[in-house]
Amino acid sequence: MSDAVQALQAAAVAALSAHPVLAAQLKGIYDGPPPRAAFPYVAVTDGLVGDWGTKTQQGREIRLAFTVWDDGEAASRLTDLMGHVDDALLAIPRDLPGWRIASFVFLRSIILRDPAGPWAGLVEHRVRLLAV
After folding, report:
1. DSSP states of 36-104 as a string?
2. Element (H or E) spanning 13, and its range?
3. CA gap 13, 73 in Å, rounded
4. pTM higher than 0.70, yes or no?
5. Per-residue buried b or exposed e for 81-107, using 16+ beta carbons within 10 Å of the residue's own CB
6. Rounded distance, CA 5 to CA 85, Å?
7. Which domains does the chain have, with CATH numbers?
8. How confident is the model at residue 112 (pLDDT cuts 50, 70, 90)?
9. Is residue 33 pLDDT above 90, yes or no?
10. Quick check: 73 pLDDT over 50?
């Protein structure tokens, strides 16, 4: 199960890193919120993983989620970055090591802010993969 998650997350991080706007504006892409990171940055959120196999083929359904963190006065830059994250994720190749993406669907996004802290914008997709 974890090999599907690892393959998908590696492809997602590569797609985010290769996106020209994100590469220019983000200070980093991290595996969870890092201590003392410079804003803005993206944190990979541990996603929900379930079975999506058939009688003859192994499959996984993965909730791929990224949180964009920003300390701006308003949410405008965060909203723009979230749109670019969504665009970058759509560029993930459909063939991954050992897996093939069968569907890639946007699920939701939300922006939250703690009054004493930074903005957080969640972008979540549902990805269904079949083993090859």
Report:
1. TPPSSEEEEEPPPEEE---SSS-EEEEEEEEEEEE--SSSHHHHHHHHHHHHHHTTS-SEETTEEEEEE
2. helix 2-18
3. 27
4. yes
5. bbebbeebbeebeeebeebebeebeee
6. 18
7. 2-131 (3.30.2000.30)
8. very high
9. no
10. yes
Q: Cβ contacts of residue 47 below 8 Å, gap of 6+? A: 5, 62, 63, 64, 65, 124
Return the pLDDT at 70.
96
Confidence check: pLDDT of 132 > 50: yes
Measured distance CA(36)–CA(50) in Å, rounded: 33
- Which residue from 16, 14, 45, 48 is spatially nearest to 32, judged by alpha carbons? 45
pLDDT at residue number 11: 96
Residue 16 CA from chain centroid, whole number? 8
- Say how far apart CA 63 and CA 21 lie, in whole Å: 24
Per the DSSP assignment, residues forming a β-bridge with 42 are 29, 68
Rounded Cα–Cα distance for residues 123 and 1 (Å): 22
CA dihedral 78, 79, 82, 88 (to 10 degrees): -110
